Amino acid sequence: MLTILSNNRLQSSYLNKILKSSLSSIVQYNPRNNSLNEITTPYQIKLPEGNENVMNYMQYSKRGNPLEVLSCGKHKYEIHDDQVCVALQMSSLNPADLNTVEGRYPIKPELPAIGGNCGFGVVTQVGKNIKNLSSGDWVIPGKVAMGTWSTHLIAEEQELLKIPKVRPEFASILMVNPPTAYRMLHDFTNLKKGDWIIQNGATTEVGRSVIYLASKLGFHTLNFCRKGTNFDSKKKMLKDLGADLVLSGEELKNRKMMKKIIKNIEKPKLGLNCVGDFWVPKMASCMAKKGVMVTYGGLSVGTKVAVNPGLLIFNDLSLKGFWLSRWVQTHSRREREIMLEHICEIMGNDFPVHLECHNLTNFKIALKRYYSHLQGSRKIVFLNQY
Ligand SMILES: NC(=O)c1ccc[n+]([C@@H]2O[C@H](COP(=O)([O-])OP(=O)(O)OC[C@H]3O[C@@H](n4cnc5c(N)ncnc54)[C@H](OP(=O)(O)O)[C@@H]3O)[C@@H](O)[C@H]2O)c1
C-alpha cells in the first residue's frame, strides 16, 4: 500500500486525479492519520484463517439515525446441513441501506438486524445437503437486506446467487446498481441503436452504469450532474465511460442553450431520474413524443416529481417508476442469473469502479464521511481483510 495524502486539500486533488482516470481505483481510509492509502487493483481476495467461527457485524435493534442505532456485534456461528458460510469480501454503503436502518424504506427487516444489502463473498463452508455451491464459489445475496455489513453471511443455498469470478471491485457493486441501469434500459421503451437517453444524477453509480451500458449497446446519452467544484473532471470521467454529452443543472435551466442542443440530436425516448426537483420538468421538456420518464431515486430529499401537463396531454409522455427489489420479486432466479451473466460480460472487464474502503469496526467514521460527502465520487465499502 502507498500512502498518498493526508489533508482535505490533497484529498480534493486526488479526487480530481481519480475522476480523470478511466481505470478502477480503490483507496483504504486510515482513521489514525486521516489518510487514504491506495490499494493495487484488481483487489486480491483474502479469506479467514483458523477455525474460530466468529463473525463480526454492524447491527441495530431499533430503527432510527444510523449513527445512533448501529453498533458492533460479534458471535460464534455454526452452519447446519442446509446452510453455507460465506466470507464476505466487500459490502457497500448505499443510500437505500441507510433509509432501511432509518425505517424510511419499504423493506423493514425483523429486529435486531444486521445492516447492509449489497456485497459479495466467497463460500468457505457448505453443509451436508448443499448441492449447487462449493467452497471457493463467489456469491452475492439473492434476497434483499440479508445483512452484508458483516464478516460472514450464513445462508441457505437458495438465498444466494453464484456469480462469475469478475474483478472483485466489480463484484462488490454487481448486486444492485448495474442491474438497475440494465433493467431501465431494457424494460420501458423499445430502444434501437442510435436512440438517445436523458438522465440526471449521471455521476451516481447507477448513472455511470447507464452511460457505460448504453454506449456498449449502441445508445446515446445526454447526461446531467451537479456542477460542484470538479465539474470538468466529472465531465471527463463520464465522457471516458462513453457519455455523448455532459451538462450541469445550470445549463439544463438555460432554455436557449437546451433548445440548440436538442435541435442537433434525436429527442430522447427514455428519461431517467434519481434526483427530482427542477431537473424533471426541464428534462421532460426535452423528450420525444411518447417518451417515458422513469423515476428510480429521490436524492433531493422532499422533492416532488412534476411536469408541465401539456407534455402528458399533447406529447403522450409517460411517467413511470422502477424498483429493482420489485423486479427481483417478480422474476425467476434464472432470469436474474441470465441478466447478471450479461452484465458481467459487458461490464466485468473494464467498467471503472471507484471505492473508498473502511474496516467494519470504523463504521461510524465511514458513515460520517458519507454524510459529509468526503468520499467524493467513490462508493464507500466495508472491506474484510481477515
Ligand atoms: N429504484 C431502485 O431499484 C434503485 C436501485 C439502486 C439505486 N437507486 C437510487 O439511485 C440513486 C443513486 O444511487 P447510487 O447508489 O448510484 O448512488 P451513489 O453512487 O452513492 O451516488 C452518490 C452521488 O449522487 C450525487 N448526489 C447526491 N445528492 C444529490 C442531489 N441532491 N442532487 C443531485 N445529485 C446528488 C452525488 O454526485 P455529485 O456530487 O457528482 O452530484 C454523489 O456522488 C439513489 O437515490 C438510490 O436510492 C434506486
UniProtKB/TrEMBL annotation:
Belongs to the zinc-containing alcohol dehydrogenase family. Quinone oxidoreductase subfamily. Its EC number is 1.3.1.104. Residues 64-383 form the Enoyl reductase (ER) domain. It is found in: Mitochondrion. Gene3D superfamilies: Medium-chain alcohol dehydrogenases, catalytic domain (3.90.180.10), NAD(P)-binding Rossmann-like Domain (3.40.50.720). It catalyses: a 2,3-saturated acyl-[ACP] + NADP(+) = a (2E)-enoyl-[ACP] + NADPH + H(+). The keyword Oxidoreductase applies. Keywords: Fatty acid biosynthesis, Fatty acid metabolism, Lipid biosynthesis, Lipid metabolism, Mitochondrion, NADP, Oxidoreductase, Transit peptide. InterPro entries: ADH-like_C, ADH-like_N, ER, GroES-like_sf, Mito_Enoyl-ACP_Reductase, NAD(P)-bd_dom_sf. It comes from Anaeramoeba flamelloides. SUPFAM superfamilies: GroES-like (SSF50129), NAD(P)-binding Rossmann-fold domains (SSF51735). PANTHER family: ENOYL-[ACYL-CARRIER-PROTEIN] REDUCTASE, MITOCHONDRIAL (PTHR43981:SF2). Transmembrane segments: none annotated. This is enoyl-[acyl-carrier-protein] reductase.
